[in-house]
Design brief:
Elements (H helix, E strand, L loop, with lengths): L1 H23 L5 E5 L4 E4 L1 H6 L4 H4 L7 H4 L4 H8 L1 H4 L3 E10 L3 E15 H7 L1 H11 L5 E11 L1 H23 L3 E6 L5 E4 L1 H7 L3 H5 L12 H14 L1 E10 L5 E11 L2 E8 L1 H43 L8 H31 L8 E3 L1 H15 L4 E8 L6 E3 L1 H17 L3 E11 L2 E7 L7 H4 L20 H11 L3 E6 L5 E8 L1
Helix pairs in contact: 1-7, 7-8, 13-14, 14-18, 15-16, 16-18
């Protein structure tokens, strides 16, 4: 008998070594327990996941592992019933906070394994030796429990987030004001629709399920649909502007259509723009009428205004007889207002031309610093008796760049005129410098500054920066903006009350 045992042991050890190698390569934690729930074998995955060593685990009662973090009454009761009742535990979900690794969700599978005590002794001699003292000998069988543990915490989190995402999508799908259709990417048939689509197209949910996408006018036919799917596969999103979608009653609805790739299905968003289109056409007509009226009035005013100006000049310079001091003062005021009205008419006509996209530009390579110097000389002439210093800080390394010299000169004049209007004293500084791929220009004054609520609207036509007492046409900044934008540049203002204002614009290199 002893000889047979000696002959069998090498073979048993080899088979157990093979089995242990398989268990040790498992990615999921694995334990072998005796009937008293002592650990007689474990694998590397268990030690790694629960941050314990094999020495701390082998021979220990399961409830004592890891500072008693496995002392879970429901689990222990379940495992204790496996051997006497020959139970099999399958996919038992356990959620528990472990001291070292935190809150986890585990799936447990366990079952009984009966093996000869001799084999069990080879698995773990120390544990079985203690068991032999209790059981009284080497003969007979050892009843073990195999416990496989799968950490599904991350999977559960993803499932929860996916479910929440699906619920959010479902709510958004159902409550969207746009008509939404889910369409099969191969056959083109509608798989689902929301209430907005049903109301817009005048179909019930069941009626839309029988429709192909081309039957409601989104595509011409099946061939066009397949070509669309090829583009969608490549780009992920397709946008169609102002297409005619067909309703059940045969009406055509002007719509913007978005197609979005969704794996096996496609989402089709249909936005009814019928009213928007009508409103847009009305606004275009009104804008055209306004532009025509403004242009006509401006042109009609030019001739009589020129006559009034000439007559005023004749009286003012004494050509029609002597003028006393009081009359001269009145006539000078009248002349200033005539000149201002003339500038307003010219600016209105210029702005109307810009708005219509009819303003011509002469782009050539120019030196921006030279233009800034010319603009400053002109500003000196119309600064009058103001005690305002005009300062230049021009960048030395500016390259010659393409821009319309006269138009950018006008931008600088408009910005400086605006600065002078609000700066009775102090200084106005023009700066130029190179910044990445742009040339940057700033005009900084020492005026009262602009309120934050006025900053957004200062480039709008007839904006007067909240001060109606200052003279001006209200178009200078609007014209400056249009010119800079036509040069593919940017223009903006920065200000702080009591600390002046700085206008910036950039021109691309």
């Amino acid at each position: 008998m002893e000889n047979k045992k000696q002959r069998d042991e090498p073979r048993i050890e080899a088979l157990l070594g093979y089995a242990n190698s398989i268990i040790d390569t498992l990615r999921e934690p694995f334990l072998v327990l005796d009937k008293n729930l002592r650990v007689i074998s474990t694998n590397q995955a268990f030690c790694a996941v629960f941050e314990v060593t094999e020495k701390e685990t082998i021979g220990q009662p399961l409830p004592d592992l890891g500072n008693k973090q496995w002392d879970i009454p429901k689990l222990l009761q379940l495992l204790k019933e496996i051997i006497p009742e020959k139970k099999v535990v399958k996919d038992y979900e356990l959620e528990h906070r472990f001291e070292q690794i935190g809150q986890r969700v585990m799936i447990l599978n366990a079952r009984q394994l009966r093996i000869p005590r001799q084999v069990a002794a080879i698995i773990s001699s120390e544990v079985i030796a203690a068991a032999e003292g209790e059981a009284g000998g080497e003969t007979g069988e050892e009843e073990l429990i195999l416990l496989a543990i799968q950490d599904v915490t991350e999977r559960k989190r993803i499932q929860k987030e996916l479910k929440e995402s699906e619920e959010r999508f479902r709510r958004a799908f159902e409550t969207s004001l746009d008509g939404l259709l889910l369409v099969h990417k191969t056959g083109g048939n509608v798989l689902n629709s929301n209430s907005s689509a049903q109301k817009m197209l005048d179909y019930s949910s069941d009626e839309l399920l029988k429709k192909k996408l081309w039957e409601i006018g989104v595509t011409k036919d099946d061939k066009d649909f397949q070509e669309m799917m090829s583009i969608l596969e490549r780009d992920g999103v397709i946008y169609y502007n102002d297409i005619q979608v067909n309703t059940k009653k045969g009406l055509n609805i002007s719509s913007d259509v978005f197609l979005v790739d969704k794996a096996k299905v496609m989402q089709c968003n249909i936005r009814d723009i019928t009213e928007k289109k009508k409103t847009k056409n009305i606004l275009i007509e009104l804008a055209g009428a306004k532009s025509k009226f403004t242009s006509t009035v401006s042109h009609e005013l030019r001739s009589p205004l020129a006559a009034i100006k000439e007559a005023t000049n004749l009286v003012l310079d004494g050509s029609l007889g002597p003028v006393n001091a009081e009359q001269e003062d009145v006539l000078s005021t009248a002349k200033e207002n005539i000149d201002r009205l003339g500038r307003l008419i010219n600016n209105v006509l210029v702005y109307q031309k810009m708005e219509a996209g009819k303003m011509g530009y002469d782009f050539n390579k120019n030196d921006l610093n030279e233009v800034a110097q010319e603009a400053l000389k002109s500003a000196v002439l119309f600064s009058g008796n103001r005690k305002t210093d005009l300062v230049m800080e021009l960048g030395a390394d500016l390259p010659r760049i393409k821009f319309d010299k006269d138009k950018i000169f006008q931008v600088l004049i408009n910005l400086m005129a605006n600065a002078l209007k609000y700066s009775e004293s102090g200084s106005i500084t023009i700066q130029t410098w190179r910044e990445d791929y742009d040339v940057h220009v700033s005009v900084r004054d020492s005026g009262p500054g602009i309120k934050p609520e006025d900053l957004e609207g200062i480039f709008e036509p007839f904006g007067m920066l909240g001060n109606k007492q200052k003279s001006g046409t209200g178009l200078g900044l609007a014209i400056a903006r249009e010119i800079v934008l036509a040069h593919h540049g940017r223009i903006w203002a920065e200000s702080e009350i009591g600390k002046g204002c700085t206008f910036h614009f950039t021109l691309p290199l």
